[in-house]
């Protein structure tokens, strides 16, 4: 099982204006959401994990090995990142070529790259679009192409940046099932996201960033039980959690189904 240790991590783009200050975390087998308002340091944190930025202080260990000793190319074999905006990631004229680019770029054989890419496209429901130009497809499908591109690389760590962008209910359910499948395969799954409902429904652990620091790091239910602390990070609770609070319930409900089952079991 892979593990990422973040030790005393600090980073700034401008001297004396820290973006992240003394971050200490262990990212383990639990699916983990990183949340916080814009400017909290989430994207910078992910870029540091991916090796796209170098920390001013501290270290990041992947399975006890400092990523400082790894090139970006070597890290690409271990850590996959799905960009927030698919238009920043897609550049090929065929869906299959786009999805195969990552696997080929990390040294996978053509045969393995084709097999993995077709499997990934099946996972995201785009097998029938294999020969399409990605830019002939809508934004939601382009987002799924970028997800397939990372899945095909078969990395130990998969990071999603705002995975639910442009997705309807069925798209979100599909991505949710992919995240759970990756976790079941023993991969580290991490996301930065603003969709609190999706966090509540999908992730076991939630880390709240605020002003470059970790404000909360708990099981997701525990995080959303701390409404007053969330307000300090300018975050809202999931919709069902807010509704049940307004109705006077003390319990923290994360999904509609949870609340329905509670009502059934208590004959209310």
TrEMBL record:
Localisation per UniProt entry: Cell membrane
Domain ABC transporter, chain residue ranges per copy: 4-236
Pfam families: ABC_tran
InterPro entries: AAA+_ATPase, ABC_transporter-like_ATP-bd, ABC_transpr_CbiO/EcfA_su, ECF_ABC_transporter_ATP-bd, P-loop_NTPase
Cellular component per GO, a single term: ATP-binding cassette (ABC) transporter complex
EC annotation from Swiss-Prot or TrEMBL: 3.6.3.-
Membrane topology reported for the UniProt record: Peripheral membrane protein
UniProt-recorded name of the protein: Putative ABC transporter ATP-binding protein
Source organism of this protein record: Clostridium saccharobutylicum DSM 13864
């Amino acid at each position: 099982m892979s593990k990422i240790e973040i030790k005393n991590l600090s980073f700034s783009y401008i001297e004396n204006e820290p973006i992240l200050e003394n971050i200490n975390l262990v990212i383990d087998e639990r699916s983990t959401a990183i949340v916080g308002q814009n400017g909290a340091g989430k994207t910078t944190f992910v870029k540091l994990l991916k090796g796209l930025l170098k920390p001013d202080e501290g270290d990041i260990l992947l399975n006890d090995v400092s990523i400082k000793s790894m090139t970006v190319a070597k890290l690409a074999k271990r850590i996959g990142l799905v960009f927030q905006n698919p238009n920043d990631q897609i550049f090929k004229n065929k869906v299959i070529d786009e999805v195969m680019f990552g696997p080929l770029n990390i040294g996978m054989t053509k045969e393995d790259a084709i097999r993995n890419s077709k499997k990934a496209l099946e996972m995201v429901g785009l097998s029938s679009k294999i020969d399409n130009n990605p830019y002939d497809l809508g934004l939601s499908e382009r987002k799924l192409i970028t997800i397939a591109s990372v899945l095909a690389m078969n990395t130990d760590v998969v990071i999603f940046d705002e995975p639910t962008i442009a997705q309807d209910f069925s798209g979100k359910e599909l991505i949710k099932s992919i995240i759970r499948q990756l976790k079941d395969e023993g991969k580290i799954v991490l996301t930065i996201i603003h969709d609190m409902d999706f966090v509540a429904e999908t992730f076991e652990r939630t880390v709240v960033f605020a002003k470059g620091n970790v404000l909360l790091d708990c099981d997701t239910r525990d995080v959303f039980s701390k409404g007053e602390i969330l307000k300090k990070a300018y975050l809202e609770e999931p919709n069902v959690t807010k509704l049940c609070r307004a109705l006077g319930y003390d319990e923290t409900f994360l999904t509609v189904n949870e609340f329905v089952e509670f009502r059934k079991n208590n004959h209310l």
